[in-house]
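Team,

Forwarding the record for the chain on the shared tracking sheet. I've put the sequence and predicted structure together so nobody has to dig through attachments.
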Amino acid sequence: MQQLLLCAEHSILVSDTAEGFEFEALMHDAAEAFLGDITRPLKQMLPEYKRIEADVERAILDRSRQRGTSSRRSKQADLRVLAAEQRQIMPEGTDGWCAARRSSQLPSLCVTFRRKEAKRIFLERFEGCTRLTFCASQNEAASGPVGELR
């Protein structure tokens, strides 16, 4: 449960930095809720795990009526938040990778939420984003295909 709450906090921060793709950013680590979190270096050595993780992510996005998978922009937002978390929360000296990857730190401070607050904020953001996506897809379906003007 604690791991899920830490993931919720991180995902909220990533979504906060993602203007125009808030839901995608909120859900960028959603597969971890089912598979657990594995460090990036270990993931690189486990191609089958990466395939399974991609399948779970795709199922989550399909279920929430989202198209595609996490994009490059979500990954960049994730790295910016991770850099801020490393500098502000983790032990000194653990953020050396930021300079090597040219990840810029967020101007704001990382926030630590109480358990219930993290859950509430995450669920409110999820509901708000999925409601907007559902309404947009309904509007697209109602308008139908646009024909050629004569």
